[in-house]
Amino acid sequence: MHTSAFHPVAIASDKGGALYIADADQERVLAFEFSGRFVRTLGGIGAKAGSFRGLRGLATTPRGEIVTAERLNARVQRLDPGGRVLASWPLDVKPGRRALPAAVDDSARVAIADESTGRLWIFDPSGRLLATLEGLERPRSLAFAGGGALFVGEA
User: Fold this and answer.
1) What is the separation of C-alpha 80 from the centre of its chain, rounded to a whole number of angstroms?
2) 111-148 b/e (C-beta count within 10 Å ≥ 16 → b)
3) Please, are residues 72 and 111 in contact by the beta-carbon 8 Å criterion?
4) Phi then psi for 32, rounded to 5 degrees?
5) Contact 75, 90 (CB under 8 A)
6) What does the pLDDT look like over 46-80, one tens digit per residue?
7) Would you tell me how many other CB atoms lie within 10 Å of the CB of residue 79?
8) Which of 84, 105, 115, 147 has the most CB atoms around it within 10 Å of its CB?
9) Residue pair 68/55 in contact by the 8 Å Cβ criterion
10) Sign of the C-alpha dihedral computed for residues 155, 102, 121 and 108 taken in this order
11) Are 5 and 25 in contact (CB under 8 A)?
């Protein structure tokens, strides 16, 4: 693993204990086994499917898929554990370095928040918008609890 430039901006783990770290400097996701052994790198700098520009959010689904949120490409991507794109949809965000926290519930609904604007979106697994909320104070983290309750950590 090359680590000369590394800027972790988000971390997620799946139900099996695999760990994923979003690296904003190299626009990649680093994958580790539950034991901590490095497994692979997903993504890289670019606009094509499976690549990232402005990577600022990361979550995992109940099936072990990976959800990413990007500012420069202004999109959400849902990837299989190997990095293949399963779904992608646009996200109404501006470039910048602020967080785009992500969370996924047991029914695979995806929540994304924009730290810059205080907006929150909830999407179905294919990217169809289900709900929005505005007026949050710099949301920095999201987590779903059992039963679908969404917790928002504001700065």
Assistant:
1) 13
2) bbbbbbbebbbbbebebeeeeeeeebeebebbebeeee
3) no
4) -130, 150
5) yes
6) 999 999 999 999 999 989 999 999 999 999 999 99
7) 22
8) 115
9) yes
10) negative
11) yes
